[in-house]
Amino acid sequence: MARSTLTFEELLHLQLAKLDEAAEEWDLQVRRLDDMKDLADAMGEHARTATWTGENAGLTLPYVTEQVEQFDAARRQAATLRNLLRDGHGRLKYAQDRLKTLVESDAPRAGVHVSASGEVSSDLDGLDGDTRRARQDAVVEIAGRITEILGVLAQDDAEIAAALRSAMGTDPDRFSPVDYTSVQQARLAREDADRVLDMMARGNDLSDDELHDLALFLDLHRDDPAFAERVALGLGPQGVVDFWSGIAGGRDFREGTPAWDSAAALQAALGDVLGTATRSDSDAMERWEQDMTALGDDRVGGPGGPHGFLAMSALLRTGDYDPDFLVDYGDALLSFEQDYDGRPSMLWDSDPRLRMNFLGEGAQEGDRGRDPVIGLMEALGRTPEAATRFFAPPDGFSPSDGYPAPPQVFDPGADNEQVNERLRYLASEREWWLSTGHMAPDPIPVHDSFADALFAAATGNPSGVFTADTVEERLADGDMRTADTTRVMDQVMHLYGTLEPNLLEETPAMGAALGAMAGLYMDDINFWISDDSEAARRLNEDLFGSPDGERAGNGHTNTIRFLGALGRDETAHGMVSQAEQIYTLGVLSASPPTDESQFLRGMESISTAAEVRGIVDQARVETINTRYMDDEGERIRQLGQSSGWWKAGGAALLGAGAAGLSLAAFPGGAAIAVPLAAGASPPLIGELMNQFVDDVSVSSPDTAQVEMTESQFFTAGKRDVADLEQIYVDAAINTGLDLDTEVRLPVQVEGAGYRHGRDLYEEVGR
Questions:
Q1: Burial letters for 163-186: b for 16+ Cβ neighbours within 10 Å, e otherwise?
Q2: Residue 410: CB partners within 8 Å, gap ≥ 6?
Q3: Around Cβ 339, how many Cβ atoms within 10 Å?
Q4: Cα(33)–Cα(45) distance, rounded to whole angstroms?
Q5: What distance in Å separates the CA atoms of residue 667 and residue 646, rounded to the nearest whole number?
Q6: How far apart are CA 729 and CA 593, in angstroms?
Q7: Distance from CA of residue 271 to its chain's centroid?
């Protein structure tokens, strides 16, 4: 039994008012932090969307972001300290009340006296035998009850102290985002952490049922930073890779069995817990992260065993990991792989019996987790901050002094064509493969996880966030693009459009991701396509506004090339076509044709939309004609299929956020978010887009296979833009604008714009 730090006399006369006052002070602090939350969030948003230049670009934003995160941690820690103090006060008050009742009431009633120091006695003089024995029994009982009260107090006192230590965290300079509601909860978390460590020390000796229990314990506390750090530090980096390698490779799990499910749950829960632990900035966890990275190239269990990278990357498939750790770990992993004199599959997939992964459809399809880069890419896809830093442009990829300034524009003609080494290696040079059963590695052009990581890096959004179920919540977060994500997008456009224009055709799995990226940068794409003249584009700066002046800087020609590359891919072609349609509707809704000036602005956006559509349509037609040169039937089937992007089913517009994004669904589960022009009306856009879908559905029956000639395909593309123009012209007429006498502008600009777009592709887009 724990020894109490409080004596009988101290407990009896303990002044608890100060403890109660401390709890109320923490409660007041919580309420103050709640009142300041909106200001803190606004500060973070302003910092994120501001255009930073000079040294501030790399210093201010990370600093402010960190302070906002610390603000949230401070609020959670303050609430936890309040809760623990309240609970602790209640426990001490209960012990004191029990003791007072015993001393002041129960003992005197039994003829027993308790001294100021807690000594129990009774006056036995002159008592008969039975009364004397009763008094002696009462002395023993009262003394025992005092001992029991002090014993419980000792336990409570130790638990309160331990809970407060857990709440304080391990870093004296940072707040700890713990979230305990009681002393008991903190004690259970600490006990569970110790129980988990005891179980994991047994490694592969654990039964299947024990693996299930271990996964439950970890999952229960996956978001508890104190629990997570206790487990991570207790295991140590070597213990982590030894444990998972032993579990994953030490027994034969069969898919569909409870044992397999337990292994998958354990992998996910352990990854979640380790991710939470890395979010701590304590010295101990920073050393842990460094040591884990350093042992990645070591063999687990000696020569012939799997590398540490394989075990840790399997655990990266779930969890919210610290961006610094992911960047350092990723650099070490790829450096080790690239230094290897041979194919990556020979380095990682040397043992066909090895399994490291049990998660997701990939495991069911045969992804045994023998490619550690996949786990890294999945983690980067969930962590945009890390992905953006991982794919940041090198020093040689410097902006030129061209227009606009600021921000500066990347000049693809300058002597700085080298993009991020990791980006180019993973996109076009690396050998990707799947581990399928006990067979040899199955080569693939590129893995989906790389597309997810690149999407996160270039847009600031975690992969997979734009779905029908999450759209409203995600769009409420606003436009996540920053100067840093835009510089990644510069490289993506340059790599896929200019440096390696056939790369997307060679890696079609990238089509949906690149189409989604283009959708989020549709404002910049329209700006650069609008004119090849710098002076003319200046007039379109407001029409195709970019958040806080930050703009992708690939210029007119490079943007045409990028669109051409996307147009050659069926999925990307459809996504760009749909994104352009919605984006232009947004621009039109923000430019109601109330006068000649407004009408001309709207017609300029329609003309640009026609050019964009002409570029991607021309690219798609030429690709289909080349690929199916000797099969006319397949050519017309492919053309009809590529023209049916509008078949997103019912309403194409799923939702819109107040921060200026709209989202459209796309067949196959992909989705695109599109920036809205300032002043755009999301409800109106949705209404018009749905009307467009209904109109096209009526004119083009949804048959199992639509066939279309090249001429019909181009006519359909031009008609889509003509629908935009007709909507706008009708709106102008309804406002009373005399198009013949006041504007003197011939309608049907979409025809000239569409033809010009096709010409642009033929001139520079191939």
A1: bbebbbbbbeebbbbbbbebbebb
A2: 397, 399, 400, 416, 487, 490, 494, 553, 554, 555
A3: 9
A4: 18
A5: 9
A6: 8
A7: 15
Cα separation values, 541 from 410, 538, 547, 747, Å: 17, 5, 11, 23
Which residue type sits at 14?
Answer: L
What are 175's strand-pairing partners? none
Q: In the structure, what pLDDT confidence band is assigned to residue 409 with cuts at 50, 70 and 90?
A: very low
**Cβ-based burial of 520 (10 A; exposed 0-12, middle 13-18, buried ≥19):** buried
At 749 the pLDDT is 65
Cβ–Cβ contacts within 10 Å for residue 247, how many? 24
Tokens of 25: 């002070």
Burial code (b: 16+ CB inside 10 Å, e: under 16) for 463-476 equals: bebbeeeebeebbe
Which pTM was predicted? 0.82
Q: Is the peptide bond before 406 cis (omega within 30 degrees of 0)?
A: yes
Please tell me whether residue 539 adopts helix, strand or coil conformation: coil
pLDDT at 651 over 70: no
Residues 6+ apart with CB under 8 A from 345: 371, 431, 433, 441, 443
Rg, C-alpha atoms of the chain: 33
∠ Cα 554 556 558 (to 5°): 50
Two structure tokens written together for 186: 């903190």
Q: Which two tokens stand for residue 230?
A: 């206790």
Distance CA 747, CA 742 (A): 13
Q: Are strands 653-657 and 113-114 parallel, antiparallel or unpaired?
A: unpaired
d(Cα 27, Cα 79) in Å, to the nearest integer? 7
Q: SS3 string of 180-249?
A: CCCHHHHHHHHHHHHHHHHHHHCHHHCCHHHHHHHHHHHHHCCCCHHHHHHHHHHHHHHHHHHHHHHHHH
DSSP state of 3: P
Q: Dihedral (C-alpha) 451, 453, 459, 465: value to the nearest 10 degrees?
A: 90
CA distance 510 to 508: 5
Q: Quick one: three-class SS letters along 330-396?
A: HHHHHHHHHHCCCCHHHHHCCCCCCCCCCCHHHHHCCCCCCCHHHHHHHHHHHCHHHHHHHCCCCCC
Q: SS in 3 state form for 267-334? A: HHHHHHHHHHHHCCCCHHHHHHHHHHHHHHHCECCCCCCCEHHHHHHHHCCCCCCCHHHHHHHHHHHH
Q: Considering the chain, what is the average pLDDT of its residues?
A: 82
Tell me the C-alpha distance between 235 and 213, whole Å: 18
Residues 6 or more apart whose CB falls under 8 angstroms from that of 402 comprise 408, 409, 411, 534, 553, 555
CA gap 9, 690 in Å, rounded: 79
The domain limits of the chain are: 8-168, 183-376, 474-645+682-765
User: Which carries the bigger pLDDT value, residue 185 or residue 248?
Assistant: 248
Whole-number pLDDT of residue 650: 35
Go through 586-610 and write b for each residue having 16 or more CB atoms within 10 A of its CB, e for each that does not. Answer: bbbbbbbbeebebbebbbbbbbbbb
Q: Residue 647: what are its φ and ψ, rounded to 5°? A: -80, 45
Mean pLDDT of 562-584: 92
Q: What digits encode the pLDDT tens for the residues 443-495?
A: 899 999 999 999 999 999 998 877 666 666 666 667 788 888 999 999 999 99
Local structure of residue 501 (DSSP, 8 states): T
Q: How many residues does the chain have?
A: 766
Between 244 and 162, the more confident residue is 244
SS3 657: strand
Question: Which residue is listed with tokens 């006068």?
Answer: 595
Pick the closest to residue 492 from 424, 430, 415, 406 (CA basis).
424
Phi and psi for 735 in degrees, rounded to 5?
-85, -5
Are 605 and 591 within 8 A, CB to CB? yes
